[in-house]
Design a protein that fits this description.
The chain is an alpha+beta fold. The chain has one domain. About 45% of the residues lie in helices and about 25% in strands. The longest helix is centred in the N-terminal third of the chain and has 52 residues.
Length: about 140
């Protein structure tokens, strides 16, 4: 048995240049694939974090409207013109806007549709957008 091992290890032909280049290329392909996967995972995690943060901003704004609608004078200040306005709370790199539409402000049963849009990046199309819609009524009164 020892002689077979000695014979196997004593063969000093070495590694050819083609084999070395093949191993280097294979290693490069594996490492570049791994690097691309890591970059994608980091990007996906960042997008998820931003979307969660934007959702929190939109929910806070909606809760603010729900709280404010309890005041009787709030309904008089609504301008229903389908034009986006800036939200009260803004954060760096995030833009929050809202608009009122489908307003029914006459009579006892008042209602208004609220559309809140929060986006991050330079424009709505650049990075991501969260949209929240709701209809507020004065059913308590």
């Amino acid at each position: 048995m020892n002689q077979k091992l000695k014979k196997f290890f004593s063969d000093n032909q070495g590694i050819s240049l083609v084999e070395i280049v093949f191993v280097i290329l294979l290693s490069f392909l594996l490492l570049s694939g791994l690097a691309a996967a890591v970059v994608f995972m980091i990007s996906a995690a960042q997008f998820s974090r931003n979307k969660s943060f934007a959702t929190q901003i939109a929910k806070k704004q909606m809760e603010l409207f729900k709280y404010q609608k309890q005041r009787s004078d709030w309904w008089n200040g609504i301008v229903c013109n389908n034009v986006f306005k800036s939200c009260a709370e803004t954060k760096p790199n995030f833009t929050c806007q809202y608009k009122f539409s489908n307003c029914n402000l006459g009579g006892e049963k008042k209602s208004v549709e609220i559309n809140i849009v929060v986006y991050w990046g330079a424009t709505k199309e650049s990075k991501g957008t969260v949209e929240l819609n709701s209809v507020l009524t004065n059913w308590e009164q």
